[in-house]
Amino acid sequence: MAHVEKRGPGRWRARYRNPNNRERSRTFARRVDAERWLTSVEHAKLSGAYIDPAMARVTFGRWAEEWLATPGKRPSAWARDDSILRNHLLPTLGDRGLGTIKPNDVQALVSGWTTDAAPRTVRRQYDTLRAILNAAVAADLIARSPCRGIRLPGVSQATSHVVNAEELAAIASAMGDYAPMAYLGAVLGLRWGECAGLRVGRIDFLRSTLHVAEQLTRGPRGAMVLGPPKSEAGRRTMAVPPALTALLSEHLASRGITGADPDAFAFPAPQGGHLDYAHWRRRVWEPAAAAGGLAGLAFRDLRRANATGMVLDGIDLKTAQTRLGHSDPRLTLAVYAQATTAADAAAATALGTRFMEFPRPSRGLGAS
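The structure assignment produced for this chain is given below.
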């Protein structure tokens, strides 16, 4: 049974047995404090909120390794979390017991990141820390996560340049053998990894469709890994306009790639096999974007232009969501579709016509 015993001058030890019948104890300077603590422990045991202090002493580093090894993580997510752990979490928290990490420790860590990193980067690092500690709560290692009431830096919505047809043609013409990738990004809204992972057998030239079934992503230690789309919604079959179908056909013919090899990559690396994003970006994309007068443009900005174009052309949200492979329609609107100057001017004209084109009195509203 739980009890308090005197261990010497100013030393009172509270003893109890945990739900596994293992003895636990803690020493206090006053008997009343020992009794209060023992009461709280017994209450936690009865209510199911009890956490064994020995479990809370498990270090953050040890638990983070277990968390990172959880099955089901996508290679790109594993690589991102592994990098954040090694560079931003383990140096500070690695040797700390989980039960010793408090909200002020987390806030200090976040505040330190804010001085050197962009708000989005800080939030990404914090999300990884929060996920690790939430998992510790779920595993009954700690009773509450210290990620409570943390002040994070604000993130403003970034506005990207919306590429037009002339700019797209200029970029594509500078991309050489990889020119069709620019049109896949802008016309179909494919991600870079979906373009790079596209196999010949996924293109149906008779039906003018393209099936997205896999993509290249950055995996452990920066290696490129071929895997399924990032979500089930990303696995999709899309109609392809005739002009793009013809461009893809010409591209494959010029590379000597035929339908006899359906597993061949539509855009192989110069030495064969799949592309490496870092090399491709440095050697192909960045020079082409600069040649088109859009230095600094990212390949993902073509996808943004695609979504914005669908919104401006009145394509319904469900169709846009499906073509972009989004599981949540809010992502389609909030992240990719952005207003343009032309659309804003058109909206002003339409609203002016609706509310202001009527006979107006020549005298003021207050005149009799």
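Interim note for the steering committee: The two ends are 92 Å apart (CA to CA). Residues 158 and 347 are 22 Å apart (CA to CA).
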